[in-house]
Design brief:
This protein is of the alpha+beta class. Helices cover 31% and strands 29% of the residues.
Length: 327
Amino acid sequence: MKHNIAIIMGGFSSESEISLKSGSVVHNHLPKDQFNCFPIHIRKNQWVYVSDSNEELPVNLHDFSIATDNKIIHFDCVFNAIHGSPGEDGLMQAYFELLKIPHTSCGSYQAALTFNKRDCLNVLKAYDIPTAISYPLNKGDKINGKDIIDRVGLPCFVKANRAGSSFGVSKVYQAEDLQSAINTAFEHDDELIIEAFLDGTEVSVGVLRYKGEVTVLPITEIVSENDFFDYEAKYLGQSEEITPARISKIQEDNVKNMAKSIYNILKMDGFSRSEFIFVGDTPYFLEMNTVPGLTEESILPQQAACAGIRLSELFTNAILEAMAKNV
């Protein structure tokens, strides 16, 4: 008997278009002999099932069902392909947990924690995970540029605290440019984190539960053509993503062990992709994405391919792992 799978995509954030691409790739690669797949577009004003003929049917929010072909469809599992809110910040996870519907992402608490860069860093610092020196700032706070620079130095990064795909991120070289960067970040969130610049090799590490085991995928080295790994570098081809990364065996072991440790510390499930920068042989943790990009060109699928895992296997495994948790 085939399982009914809802693939949720879209969302409320600046990443909605990217999410639609990820969701489409998931839909195209899930084996149709195992699953009945239903693309569900999550929008601010409505949630709809989009059929192969582009007919849109409303989702019943009381039980997350749809009515089609004179029957009610309930779902055995939800594949979460929403980057940003509400798919990566815990809102969708909490909704499905209340309805007791299995889903492929981490738990609602883990999603909310990792989506909040400041809170996630503070939790991991208690476990002696190395991180950059940082300065928190909320909208309405008095801004003392000297205090900020005295703490984090120059250059530094100004980041929206709860945003993905490098939206609201600026690299600041001069003190007189700090306020402008802060203003830009506040366009995306009312909480900021300002971090010291770390000069070293940047890597991205995918970790997931694969066939019941926490598995670290081959590491990707990020070489941006721009000043840092910004939106254009991530999505418009202005970067080189090298898998496996050109790092030493010591660096590889250190970052794999740290990435797996972080996954376990945070009690993660599903996909994760964490970013690190090496200072010497020590990886410094930057952030974790719990719904990373899932297109053929995205980093985590590249890593899976390097490990010999096809997209159909990667996505099927995510569903089977999610359903196994609820047995």
